[in-house]
Please model this.
Amino acid sequence: MIKRSKRYKNLKKTIEKEKKLSVKDVLELIKKNSNAKFDESIDVSLRINLKQSKGGDLSLRTVVKLPNGSGKKEKIAVLCEPDKTSDAKKSGADIFGSDDLIEKIASGKFNFTKLICTPAMMGKIGKHGKVLGPKGLMPNPKLGTVSADIIKAVNDIKTGLIEIRNDKDGNLASTIGRKSYSTENLLENFNHFIDSIKKEKPDTIKGEFIKNTFITSTMGISYKVGAR
Model:
C-alpha cells in the first residue's frame, strides 16, 4: 500500500472541493500550492486520440515555440564545419565542434541535452544514430535541430522551442513554464500549446483529438482541466 504524505493529502483535498476547474483556476491553484524550495516546472499532460479511420495509429512528433519560453535550461551542442565554429560560438552554444565533437560522441563522452547539426555534417553524424537516437539527441530537420542558420537554431531552443511526442498509449506531456511565471504568461503558453497540438490533427482522425488535459507542477498533484 502506497503511503501518502500529509502534504499530498492536503493537496488532494483541493481537487475534491472543485470538480470542474478552468485552466486559469488550475494554474492559480498550482502556483498557490507549489511550495517546494525551487522553481517548480508547470507541466501539461494530454491524452490524445491516436486511432485513425485509415491506416495505423498516429504517431505525433513535432515542435512548439512557446511565446513566453519554457524556463527549461538546455545544454546545447552544435556540430558544424570548421569554418562555422565562430557562428556557433557567437550563438551562445555551450559546446561546439566539428570532427573533434564527433569523436567525443563516438566514444560516448558527451554531456548535452540538445544537438544542432548543419546539413553538411549530417552525413558524418548519421552513423552514430544508434547512440544518439535512444537519448532523443539525433538531429532532425522537422525538429529544428538541422539548420544552416546556427544562430537562429540555437536562439529558438533557448527562447522556448520545445519538442513533443506521444507515447504508445497516446499520452503526451510538456512543460509550459515555471512556478515563477505569472498566471497570464502560463495561460498564454498553455493556449498556444493546445492550439498547436490541435493543428497536428490529421483528417483521418475522427472526433475530438484531445481527450483529456491535466496540469501539474514538479512536486504537486495533477489537476484535470474542465474548460479553457
Remarks:
- The first strand starts at residue 21 and ends at 22.
